[in-house]
Each structure stands twice: as structure tokens, then as C-alpha cells.
Amino acid sequence: MRTRIINILTMIIVFVIGGVFTYAIIGSPITSGDATSVFKSCSTTKCTNKVIIDDTGISEAVDKIYDAVVMIQNYQGNSVASTGTGFVYKVDDQYGYIMTNQHVVDSATKIIAIDSQDQQIEATLLGGDIYLDVAVIRIPVDKVLKVAEIGNSENAKLGDTVFTVGSPLGYEYRGTVTGGRLSGKDRMVSVSVSGSNSNDWMMKVLQTDAAINPGNSGGPLVNSNGEVIGINSMKLIQTEVEGMGFAIPIEYAMSHISTLEAGTAIVRPMLGITLVDATDTRTLYQNQILLDQSIKEGVVVVDVVSNSGAATSGLKKGDVITKINNENVPTGAYLRYELYKYNVGDTIEVTYIRGTKEHTTKVKLTENNS
């Protein structure tokens, strides 16, 4: 009996030791980087890896960008009219250059940049553009604490970790960090410019669920490597909507940055027409334009500018433009978005409806002086 008990105890001990040894071989965590652990789970038929990712490493990315970000105060007269955010994207021997939104510095009589050490620095506006919604200001180079690293939004993937640094709701909350995911790419959103209440322009943007509030405008959207991939510009504001913010892709802004630094206006082409959306029945009625009931979208020619490309192409009042170089233009905002891809002097193909018949014509683009 005693021998049997000893044998049973021996088997239990061997089983326990064997289980511990097996876990040490196939069940223990294998680290891969600071923020990822891989656990291998094996059965009799196969082994699978389970990856657990956390965001403990994001603080290092924040450190890379934090001191490059500034709060921007827009003074009109002797008082602060509005605030926003910007970031230093380059320096030279004399100046540090800060990128922000045009609407952040619009109509400013004085611009003050406040850095992460609470230094107040008077900045100079170099140039900006309402359609890009990007502006460049500069400060003395000896006031620059850090320069942001510029990344690439085209390489970013949906679900990537992103974060913002900004000044939501003004001075009290400057330097706020908010995080989230890259929720969408190549989103087309309509925006108004120059304070109009209409949809003047389509903008291709990045979508994120990182919190973007008033005062975050012009600040950086940053990837987990601490690189700027976008410029925070707007959010969708509806009572039933939460977590839909938008940023201008950094490549789009950088493609025009030398022009803005030089203070030179971005020259855009024009067709040479006064236009209205086909859905704007009131304006059409006021201009005595009656469309066929089959036409549900497009851009209606209200007037043609003399000596313009449209005038020589044969376009007339009442024509409904539906495509530019075979790209659909359901509204005037889409038409401008497609049109502004081209340069003065380019010739494009315009598809339009006159009455009920579809036609095409070639239009040489002229300079838009408005």
C-alpha cells in the first residue's frame, strides 16, 4: 500500500514538472518591441500567434513633436479674436517657419505664438490660401524649441494610431494631447470659404476619431513615430455625431509651401463662367433658366465671361456641365476641386448637357484674377 502511494505521488510530481517545462517552451511570452507581445499557442495540429498591442510607446512620439507645437493667438485690434494651433516645420539661419490653417490667422492685425515653455513670440504672416486652408508664419530662429518631423500620409493605414497636440478652447488647455485612430483616407468633404454659407469647395482629407475641438485647428495630426501626417482643419459638428475630425494631408500642404513662404498668391485657372448648382432652383428661376426634369445634378452656366476659354469653346447660358476630363462634377464645389488640379494654359475637355443632349468641348484655361 505504501509503495502504491509513493508511485502515485511520483507520477503527480512528474506531471507538474512536465507541465511547467512545456509552458516554458511554448507558452511563455516573446516580446517584440516595447509595445507588442506575442504568445504562441500550440495544439496537436498547428501553432498560432496571438499579438497583443498596447500604446505605452506613444509618449515617446509625443516627446518628439510636443515642443514644436505652438498656440496661435489672432489679434484684431488690441484683443484676441480667436486662437488656434501651429507647428514649426523647418528653420533656416534666421527664422523658424510655422504651418497653420489660413482661417486661424485670417484678418489678424497681430499674431502671437505661445510655445510649450509659455514664451510669447510675435510672428509674421508670410502667406496663406483660403482654398488650401494653409498659412505660413515665421518667428526668430532663436525662439524655436524644436522642429517637427514631416511624415507621409500616403503610407498610413486605416486603424493606425494617431494623435494631436493643440490648444482646444484657448489658453487654459494649450498643449493638450488627444489620441485615436486613422478612421478614413481620401474623404471628400465640402467646405465654405471667406465666411460664405455655401459649399464652395471640396477638400480631400484624412479622417480621425482623435478629439479635435475649437483651437486645435492648424495643429499637427501625428503618427506613432512622431511624424506629422496632416494638419487638423475641421470636425463634423452634429448632435448625433461624435469623433469625426478631419486633417489636410501633409503632402498636399507641402506641395504649395514654397509659394506660401514667398507670400505669392497661388494662381488658379478659370473656365470663364458664372455658375450655380443644378439643384438651386431658386437662383435658376431668378436667372430665367429652366432645366429638363431629367437633370438632377451638375453645374449650370449662368453667364460666360468675354474673351475667356469658355467663351471661345461655345459654352452658353443654361448649359449643364457634368464632367471635366471625364470626372463627374455634380456640384460647383466638385467642379472647383477638379478644375484646380490644372494650370493656367491647360486645355481640358468639358462634358455638358444642352436641352436634353450631351455634348463635349475643349476649353483652354485662363487665369482667375478674382
Could you explain how this protein is built, in words?
- The chain has a 6-stranded antiparallel β-barrel with strand order 4-5-6-9-8-7. Strands 11-12-13-16-15-14 form a 6-stranded antiparallel β-barrel. Strands 18, 19, 20, 21, 22 and 23 form a 6-stranded antiparallel beta sheet that branches.
- It folds into 4 domains: 2-53, no CATH class; 59-143, Thrombin, subunit H (Beta Barrel), CATH 2.40.10; 153-261, Thrombin, subunit H; 269-367, Pdz3 Domain.
- The longest helix has 25 residues, at 2-26.
- The protein contains 8 helices and 24 strands.
- It is of the alpha+beta class and 370 residues long.
Strand content: 35-45%
Instruction: Please tell me the overall pLDDT.
Output: 85
Strand order of the largest sheet: 4-5-6-9-8-7
According to CATH, what is the topology of the largest domain? Answer: Thrombin, subunit H
CATH homologous superfamily classification of the largest domain: Trypsin-like serine proteases
The CATH class name of the largest domain reads Mainly Beta
Q: What Rg, in angstroms, do the CA atoms define?
A: 29 Å
Number of helices: 8
Any idea what the shape is?
elongated
Largest sheet: number of strands, sense, barrel closure: 6 strands, antiparallel, barrel
Report low-confidence residues grouped into runs of 5 or more: 20-53
CATH architecture descriptor text of the largest domain = Beta Barrel
Q: Give the tally of structural domains.
A: 4
Q: How many strand units?
A: 24
Helical residues, percent: 10-25%
